Amino acid sequence: MTNPSPTIDIHTHYVPNGWPDLAQETGANGPWPWLRSDSEREAMLMLGSAEFRPLRSNAWAAEERLAAMDADGVDVQVVSPTPVFFSYARDPKEAAKVSRIFNDLALEVCDPAPQRLIPFCQVPLQDTDAACRELDRSLENGHVGVEIGNHVGDRDLDDEGIITFLQHCADRNAAVFVHPWDMPTSPRLDRWMARWLVGMPGETHLSILSLILGGGFDRLPAHLRLCFAHGGGSFPYWLGRMDNAWHQRPDLIATSEFPPSQYLNRFSVDSVVFNDASLRLLTDVMGSEHIMLGSDFPYPLGERPAGNLIRKSAFLTQEQQSQILSSNAQKFLGMDVDADVQIFNETPASA
Description:
Elements: E1 8-14, H1 22-26, E2 33-37, E3 42-47, E4 50-56, H2 62-72, E5 76-81, H3 92-110, E6 117-121, H4 128-141, E7 145-149, H5 160-171, E8 175-179, H6 194-213, H7 216-219, E9 226-228, H8 239-248, E10 268-270, H9 276-286, E11 291-292, H10 308-311, H11 318-332
C-alpha cells in the first residue's frame, strides 16, 4: 500500500555515533567537536573540554529515528547536519575535510532507510570554489540538498561568494535549507537560553532581509529552492515595518528593486512556531504554499509529535494541511508530486 500524500519533515538533524579525531584529520589545533559516550544511549557533544549539548541515541540510530517517525505519523525526514560542525571560522582546507567526513557519515546514518531518510550535506561556505566542489561530490554520492548557516562571520547571505554558491545550487537543482547559528553572546543573552530564544529568530530575520535589501534575490534565479528554519524567525511578524521603512527611507532602505513584501514568493519557511496564532500569522504572511513541516528533531526545543500543530490547527483547510505536510516539501526536494511519491513509501509510516 502506498500513501498518496507522504508526510515530510524537512527540518531534522543528526549527530553521528563518533567520528575521527578532527585535530589529527586536519592537522589543526582545537577546540574541535567530539562525542563523549556516557552510556549505550546517551552521549555528550563536546567542544574541546567544554560540554556543548547532551544527546540521545536517536541522533544517530536509524531504528530509533524511524520509530519516532512512525509514532508521529511522519513518512520522510530530511536529515541535516548539526550546525556546530560547519567550521566556517576554520581554514577552508580544514573545513573541507570536516565537511567530507560528516557528509559521508550522514549517508551511513540514512542508509538503513534511504526512502525515508533523505540526507542534506554541509559545505565549507567560507570558500566558494570548495563549497561548490563539496556540493557536487555530495550530490553525486546521494545527498539531495544542502544545509548552510545563515552567515559566515560578518558575511551575510548577500555576500558575492555566497550568492555564487547559491547560484550553483540552483544550477545543480539542489534544495537549500538555511539554519541560524553562531548567535551573538553577551551577559544579557547568556541567560535563559536567550541566544536561542531571541538570537536565533533575529539571525534568521537578518539573513532573509540581507537577501532582499542586499539585492541577493534580484541576482538569483527564481527557480532556486530556498527554505529558512524556525518559521523565518521574526521576519514574518515585522514585514509591515520593513515595507514601511523601504518606502519612508528610500535613501537607506530601498536598495532592492522591490519592497520586502514582493519577495515572499522567493523562499519558504518551516512550521516550527508551536502555537496556532503564530501559525495563522505565518500562513497569512507567507501563504500555505510556502510553509513546510519542520520539527527540529531530535532536539528538545523541537516539536513532538511532529506535525501536531498543523494537524490540529483551528483554521487550516484540508488542502492547506496537505500542502504544508506533504506537497510543498516534495516540490522543495525536486520530486514530482505524483510520479515519485512511491519512493518514500515502500514502508509508509502512516499506512
